[in-house]
Design goal:
About 20% of the residues are buried. Helices cover about 10% and strands about 50% of the residues. By secondary structure, it is mainly beta.
């Protein structure tokens, strides 16, 4: 899918949530095997996740996100330590 983002219609489908989303609250973990392209907190949140990338850091622990922020990437295994997020499937 990552290579397909160069096509405008795929990028637009991802950005509008056409592939779905998960709303996760405190102490919840994403479904195994799902991949996410964006994470946005619905309220201030602290999360842990792994990233499905071959370069750079591949995980984050206790990352604090403020309401309204959006982070983009190829995320897997999201755990919400506190707060509430919406994670968009890719």
């Amino acid at each position: 899918m990552a290579n397909e983002l160069k096509y405008t219609h795929i990028f637009q489908q991802v950005s509008f949530g056409d592939f779905g989303f998960r709303i996760l609250s405190e102490a919840e973990t994403s479904v195994s095997g799902e991949h996410f392209c964006a994470i946005s907190p619905l309220e201030d949140a602290t999360i842990d996740f792994t990233s499905n990338t071959s370069g750079g850091d591949s995980s984050a622990t206790d990352l604090e996100l403020l309401t309204g922020m959006v982070i983009y990437g190829d995320f897997t295994d999201i755990t919400v330590d506190s707060g509430k997020i919406i994670a968009y499937l890719r």
